[in-house]
Structure prediction request, 476 residues.
Amino acid sequence: MAEQSFDVIVIGAGPAGYVAAIRCAQLGLKTACIDRWRDDAGKERLGGTCLNVGCIPSKALLESSELYEHASKHLQTHGVRCGGVELDLGDMMARKDRLVNHLTQGIQGLFKANQVTWFQGHGQLKGERQVGFTAHDGQEETLSAPHIILAPGSAPVELGSAPFDGESIVDSTGALAFDQVPGRLGIIGAGVIGLELGSVWRRLGSEVVMLEAQDRFLSFCDEQVAGESLKIFGKQGLDIRLSTRVTSARVDRDAGGVTVVYEDGEGEHEEHFDRLVVCVGRRPCTDGLVNGPVELAMDERGTIHVDEYCQTTVPGVYAVGDAVRGPMLAHKGSEEGVMVAERIAGMETTVNYDTIPNVIYTLPEIAWVGRTEQDLKKQGIPYATGVFPFVASGRARAMEDTTGFVKLLAHAETDRLLGAHIISSRASELIAECAIAIEFGASSEDLARTVFAHPTLSEAVHEAALATLGHPLHIP
Ligand code: FAD
Ligand code: NAI
Prediction:
């Protein structure tokens, strides 16, 4: 068979790869995208981790479980009585699956509309301009292109002390598809996945115990935010145990469930759980990605070395998304995909890594962008802080939703905004205006002099900016 040639070949169709492929095609480049993802029924699917087993299904269950908890516990406060609220887990899961199906098919439609050629199977970098493709039926082919974009994504880290068995000890994918609400759910790792999935199952009725190795909760967050959220999650009933070290997890085949042994400052403990979720981080999926005489530099974890423009050590080969440095976030990967596509087309696009928003989709949500207070202290940067609590917001009170605050950090001399940290049920939406402000180089005075609609939760951002300047209007 004659070698098929393209202008660009993308390996991986997660949010980094599929966005790169679409943007390349929009710019007139003849583009192919290879992806090997198949669902449990063997159906090929685009969208990678994010659409199939990540962002989308987790947010579907977060939304459904939040509605269930609201209907069962909180609506009464508003004078709304709805007796006999019942959970139908099967229906909840079916809705999640329909949503995933709909969105992954949407990418298929976008590929078609933009004329991206989709190759279903495994891709390997063979040379500077060559990619090996193995279809699911084993047929092999070599494709060529002057530009190759690697977007293989990431996979869950497995712990030697608690290996996955797919039934009792599972990763995040398993925890998105339980067929029953576990009575007691153990979670190793109180990070982003642990908190989101722990919240889902707690709302649906599980008793959730989280075993976290570090002594500081959410060590990557602003310390004030981490401290406040630990209190909030504790009150909700998430039993978060810090400074723990899991030494073994034994699946009990007869009685069912898992016995976990862990150590902390007080000695050794044993806990029995119906299910155990291990979510202790993710690692790049770069095993078997290269098969040929190319020097693609990676570190010991398999993270591909790239420069600020996502160029690898191989000329004409780029890498984007979870497989390269930086936060493992869908929107970060997508923006890298756009940057690489546009640079291939001769544009001078860059990604501003200082303004990537982060969100933990718990209730309340935790969101941030830019620098933390501890970062600024460490680097000796003089700063002013402005904090506004939602308890002083009229809209938050009307919503019966006053937990949390907005915290802004601005340079003490120039007043330029350096960071924003929000705990609120709508933090994921509120953080966008802060990201725009920081991206545009705004000062806290710029925010303070902007007119915000009343009554909105956004006014808390306005008031925090006023507080940074020393004269908030609605707190003493
Ligand atoms: P991936 O999405 O992992 O896609 C990589 C694709 O490449 C896969 O389809 C894989 O099959 C394919 N592939 C790999 N190697 C090859 C090969 N050699 N040949 C062919 N195909 C290959 N991020 C957020 O920003 N917001 C969220 O709310 C969020 N929630 C999450 C919830 C969970 C439970 C998880 C697990 C992750 C979540 N993430 C979230 C992280 C997000 O999913 C990832 O950052 C994102 O998917 C990374 O995109 P990517 O394109 O780099 O890789
Ligand atoms: P994470 O890095 O957020 O959290 C892992 C936690 O496990 C950390 O607190 C770590 O200290 C702890 N840990 C590590 N080893 C441990 C051990 N042996 N015992 C106990 N605790 C241990 O990683 P997580 O939650 O697995 O998520 C992976 C990535 O996926 C995230 O970093 C994030 O980039 C992405 N993600 C993003 C989401 C979002 O944007 N809302 C949602 C879910 C995932």
